[in-house]
């Protein structure tokens, strides 16, 4: 289990050291991409996990919304390895108050939302759309809303990020991460080395779609990711 703690400590250390750099490049999302990629490269060595990423040809050069399943704080490793251009992550507003990690999250130009307040959350989603249009960022979301602590399958998807994609008229790129359960037994507090797979699926365009279609798009992506998870992993 020491590997998990050390991997999380590496994230804390990197965010603390990088704060002056992020302050100088205030809310510049290229910096977020660079730091997340560096974090992931080192974290693979610390954790003993190696991620094999398939479907890299489906990565977008322009703005998009990347949708990933959510298992633990270690999801930052496959996310960083994707090296999404001008990365911005959707997170709960409370994250900003976490020392070092939260401060870096804000300075890096990420999007904070109020999950418990519909009107404020919608306003933050609008801010995300503006970030896509004005700063040309790509957004990464974990639509389950919270970690799937069972580490198997998915929790139901929330539609907020899909509303954002439709409003911004940018493609949705589903990313399916293999369950960590084979290598990470939380109950036994045991983490072992090994290889995990990540699959980037073809982009789903939103051009011409209306906000009223957000729920349909949510269900489409969730079904596609579940089918891929069951078939590939």
Walk me through the structure.
By secondary structure, the chain is α/β, with parallel strands linked by helices. The chain has one domain: 3-Layer(aba) Sandwich (Glycerol-3-phosphate (1)-acyltransferase), CATH 3.40.1130. Helix content is 44%, strand content 17%. It contains seven helices and nine strands, in the order H-H-E-E-H-E-H-E-H-E-H-E-E-E-E-H. The chain has helices at 2-24, 29-47, 76-82, 101-107, 118-135, 160-168, 214-232, and strands at residues 49-54, 65-68, 87-92, 111-113, 138-141, 172-177, 184-185, 190-191, 194-200. The protein has a seven-stranded mixed beta sheet, sandwiched between helices. The protein has a two-stranded antiparallel sheet with strand order 7-8. Helix 1 packs parallel to helix 4. The longest helix is centred in the N-terminal third of the chain and has 23 residues, at 2-24. It is globular, with a radius of gyration of 17 Å. The two termini are 24 Å apart. The relative contact order is 0.18. The model has no long low-confidence stretch (mean pLDDT 91).
């Amino acid at each position: 289990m020491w590997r998990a703690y050390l991997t999380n400590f590496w994230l804390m250390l990197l965010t603390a050291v990088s704060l002056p750099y992020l302050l100088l490049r205030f809310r510049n999302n290229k910096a977020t991409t660079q730091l997340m990629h560096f974090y992931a490269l080192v974290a693979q060595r610390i954790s003993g996990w190696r991620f094999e990423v398939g479907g890299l040809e489906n990565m977008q050069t322009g703005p998009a919304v990347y949708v990933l399943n959510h298992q633990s704080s270690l999801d930052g490793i496959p996310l960083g390895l994707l090296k999404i251009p001008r990365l911005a992550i959707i997170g709960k507003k409370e994250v900003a108050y976490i020392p070092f990690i939260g401060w870096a999250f804000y300075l890096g130009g990420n999007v904070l939302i109020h999950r418990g307040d519909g009107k404020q959350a919608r306003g933050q989603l609008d801010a995300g759309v503006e970030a896509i249009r004005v700063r040309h960022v790509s957004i990464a979301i974990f639509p389950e809303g919270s970690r799937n602590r069972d580490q198997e399958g998915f929790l139901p998807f929330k539609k907020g990020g899909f509303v954002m994609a439709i409003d911004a008229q940018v493609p949705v790129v589903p990313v399916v991460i293999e369950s960590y359960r084979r290598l990470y037994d939380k109950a036994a507090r045991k983490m072992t080395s090994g290889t995990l797979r990540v699959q980037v699926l073809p982009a789903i365009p939103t051009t011409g779609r209306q906000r009223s279609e957000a729920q349909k798009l949510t269900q489409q992506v969730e079904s596609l990711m579940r089918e891929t998870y069951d078939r590939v992993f």
